[in-house]
Specification:
Length: 392
Amino acid sequence: MIDQLPLAAWTQRQDLAVLVSALGADNVRWVGGAVRDTLLGVDAQDIDAATPLRPDDVIERLQAAGIRTIPTGIAHGTVTALLEGGNVEITTLRHDVSTDGRRAKVAFAQDWREDAARRDFTINALFAHPETLEISDYFGGLDDLAAKRVRFIGDARQRIREDHLRILRYFRFQARFGTDLDAEAEEACAELAGTLKGLSRERVGWELQTLLALPNPSPTVARMYQLHVLQVVLPETGRHEIEALTKLIAAEQTYGITPDPMRRLAALLPALPQVAGAVTTRLRLSRGQRERLACVAARTAKDGEDPRKLAYNKGTNCAIDRLLLTRADPTPVVGWDAPRLPIKGGEIVRRGVQAGPSVARILRSVEQRWVDEDFPEAPRVSAILDEELAKE
């Protein structure tokens, strides 16, 4: 069994060595995603550290070493160290005093195992010594990582009652790291799915987007639907939409299109702009995301008849989304830069039309014919304009 963290680029960073020296090696353990991902041979994105030192002590020691800090979550013991190679979140060891499923009241602790016990999954509770790289595994996380098993620490129901968002986190981690779904976790998530209704909509939206951004979340999403978990956060989704997601992901893979969570969320919704609008409001999505979902929701079976016309009128991103969702070939618009109409209203005025609504109307007619003829060059556009002016 692996009992030591493999060397990685981040474990040899000089700025991290300075941080460890300032706090004391025995007062620091790398924890969470960086440890888990490094064991899996995946590049670590965010570096998190745990320490028995109190936040004010952490700040004082780091400032003495010339390291700037931000008290990003001081009430819960988190200080962010601003380092050249990437910021590090340092959190004082904690144990929960009380929880309500959304927020936890914590007390600082001194025991590494006690801190590990309050975390969600065994694979996220692995600590690594910053110098020896020795791993501390209190709950069988190494075995679970090797077995590609996502398992709650202790009683799954209790972990979920502490933080209801762990239901969605379970499925996200399972889609990324797991193979077979854990029976105890499944039962707990299904039983407590209704608790998701009390969560912040932004947090739910973020978890859904992160899940849908994974390479192939389709089997996990289908299982969430079977367990009646998905319906709590996306009641608009039915069996047809679950199948649509599976087909969309297959199409993305066929055409080499980069996965996109908004496109996949659109697949999970009926093709109705009003439904897309309701979902974006409920999940507190951005204006740009709202517009994109509404555009994709207006898709029709005719989208594939003229992909470039669609891309010109609706934008390339929306066109690719709609083409994939209607099982049409998106390659004609991938990497395509829509051309600009070679004439402007001034040309029409110079041709004797008084500035005003007539110019706009003629320009729209010319543009429509230009698009219908697959964007011909300027000489043809000039001829089209002649024809339109002759009608006046």
